[in-house]
Amino acid sequence: MRDPEKTIGNLISKQGVAFMSSVDKNGFPNTKAMLPPCKTEGIKIFYFHTNTSSMRVSQFLENPKSCLYFCDRRFFRGVMLVGTVEVLQDSETKKTFWKDDYTMYYPQGVSDPDYCILRFTAQHGRFYSNFKSENF
């Protein structure tokens, strides 16, 4: 792969679903389909909105280790990113990411206590394409 930032960034930007994994209290992975990130910083940092009351948030507060997976089913390509998640609940961050259509998930608006932001920071990754995988 000549330009991981471009190749992987393009794949990620075209996906309607991200798969995020957390670790449960017994050390087992739990994976969930998520809406696409609400913001990305290259292929290293991803922001997602979610419910503070979710099982995923409680797991990240206990153990921040995580994995993100984006899959291009049309061309059978994918990228796995391994890293950590921070649960951001401060009002400034919540305001930064707020969109009015989020009220369908958080009826009390930007100050809804059940609204938070997950910040995933990748440490390394693996790209799969053409029946081959490579680390980056």
Biggest sheet details: 8 strands, antiparallel
Low-confidence stretches: none
Mean pLDDT: 96
Please, what is the oligomeric state?
Answer: single chain
Question: What's the structural blueprint in terms of helices and strands?
Answer:
Blueprint: H1 4-13, E1 18-23, E2 29-34, E3 39-41, E4 45-51, H2 55-62, E5 65-72, E6 77-88, H3 91-97, E7 115-129, E8 132-135
Overview of the structural elements:
- The structure is a single chain.
- Strands 1, 2, 3, 4, 5, 6, 7 and 8 form an eight-stranded antiparallel beta sheet that branches.
- A hairpin with a 4-residue loop joins strand 5 (65-72) and strand 6 (77-88).
- The protein has helices at 4-13, 55-62, 91-97; strands spanning 18-23, 29-34, 39-41, 45-51, 65-72, 77-88, 115-129, 132-135.
- The radius of gyration is 15 Å and the shape is globular.
- Helix content is 18%, strand content 45%.
- With 136 residues, the chain is an alpha+beta fold.
- The chain has three helices and eight strands; from the N terminus they run H-E-E-E-E-H-E-E-H-E-E.
Short description:
The protein contains three helices and eight strands, in the order H-E-E-E-E-H-E-E-H-E-E. The protein has helices at 4-13, 55-62, 91-97, and strands at residues 18-23, 29-34, 39-41, 45-51, 65-72, 77-88, 115-129, 132-135.
Please describe the structure with a list of short key phrases separated by commas or semicolons.
136 residues; 18% helix; single chain; eight-stranded antiparallel sheet; alpha+beta
